[in-house]
From TrEMBL:
GO terms for cellular component: cytoplasm. This is 6-phosphogluconolactonase-like protein. Belongs to the glucosamine/galactosamine-6-phosphate isomerase family. 6-phosphogluconolactonase subfamily. The keyword Phosphoprotein applies. NCBIfam families: pgl.
Length: 322
């Protein structure tokens, strides 16, 4: 368990959260694509602050090629690997990312932290919502030339397997094994950035309180057949996979989240029955919380003001489809 404390950034409203999350994602993207990845991992293990990690990439001679990626040979080989959950987080990404002109979509590999086993056209589908609010908007964006620079790789479950949670989980795990090398030579896949929400009951991804899945440390992708809310059948990436990521973000908004955040932030002990708390404690030095004021509701915790690292210049005209 990490001895470093998570960072908790607070914001006035939904739009402020969305802008800050997008900025942080671009900062991690640039740190991964334009600096030594092994160095970033080493710094992360030493609990070095992300601002210093980002400064390392800016001090790197290759950093000047951030605005001209083609000039950086290392950039050509690297991919920015992220995992996202669904629900309100997708709306946050829609609001924050699509208006930016510095998201290098063609270098992104996007995975899903979890999925409800429903058809993609169902309003309960995480991929379906991401497709509707993000991926389907690409061709009308004026902020990025997709035909020239490429689309992101998006990895989702096999829709044909939604009637069998175990088979669906096995199939998605095979995708991870293929893309992150062989399972017998890679103990766990390493995501560069993992984005999660936190529900009012403390569940995150499709890991629920008191679930047996919280004790599953062997599988990369877990079948879920007894979700207490929404579609019962799901798949979810496991706790070890999530905690092994280089950086993790919890994005939380709304006054209904205040009681569970109070329980997570004010508890000194690890509550191994509460998924969000488990990740909060086990990956503490790598975790950042982006939370609106309503969700904190006067909690007495160490809050921070987020410092934008890649704000959109006011001189840049951004045309957003939103």
């Amino acid at each position: 368990m990490s001895n470093s404390k998570p960072k908790i950034f607070t914001f006035q409203n939904f739009n402020n959260v969305a802008d800050a999350v997008a900025d942080h994602m671009v900062a991690v993207q640039n740190a991964i694509l334009f600096s030594q990845k092994d160095s970033i991992k080493k710094n992360s293990r030493r609990s070095k602050s992300f601002s210093n990690i980002q400064q390392d990439s800016l001090d790197n001679p290759l950093a000047s090629s951030i605005h001209n990626p083609a000039s950086n040979p290392r950039y050509q080989e690297k991919r920015f690997k992220i995992a996202i959950s669904g629900g309100s987080l997708i709306h946050i990404l829609n609001k924050g990312l699509l208006k930016r002109n510095d998201v290098l979509w063609g270098k992104w590999d996007i995975y899903f932290a979890d999925e409800r086993l429903v058809p993609f056209d169902s309003p309960d589908s995480n991929f379906g919502l991401a497709k509707s609010l993000i991926f389907d908007e690409f061709d009308i964006l004026s902020t990025y030339d997709f035909k020239k620079n490429g689309y992101p790789n998006v990895y989702h479950i096999n829709q044909d397997l939604i009637d069998d949670p175990s088979e669906c989980a096995d199939d998605y795990e095979k995708i991870l094994i293929k893309n992150f090398a062989y399972k017998d030579s890679v103990r766990l896949p390493t995501f560069d950035l993992f984005l999660l929400g936190c529900a009012a009951d403390g569940h995150t991804a499709s890991l629920f309180p008191f679930s047996e899945s919280l004790k599953n440390f062997d599988e990369w992708v877990i079948p879920v057949t007894d979700a207490p809310i929404g579609p019962q059948n799901r798949v979810s990436l496991s706790i070890p996979i999530i905690c092994h990521s280089i950086r993790l973000i919890f994005v939380v908004e709304g006054a209904n989240k205040a009681p569970i955040l109070k329980k997570i932030f004010e508890s000194e002990d690890l509550d191994d029955t509460l998924p969000s708390s488990v990740i909060h404690k086990k990956a503490a030095g790598k975790v950042s919380w982006f939370v609106d004021n309503d969700a904190l509701n006067d909690l007495q915790i160490n809050k921070q003001q987020y410092q934008f690292q890649y704000p959109i210049p006011s001189s840049v005209s951004i045309t957003s489809p939103l």
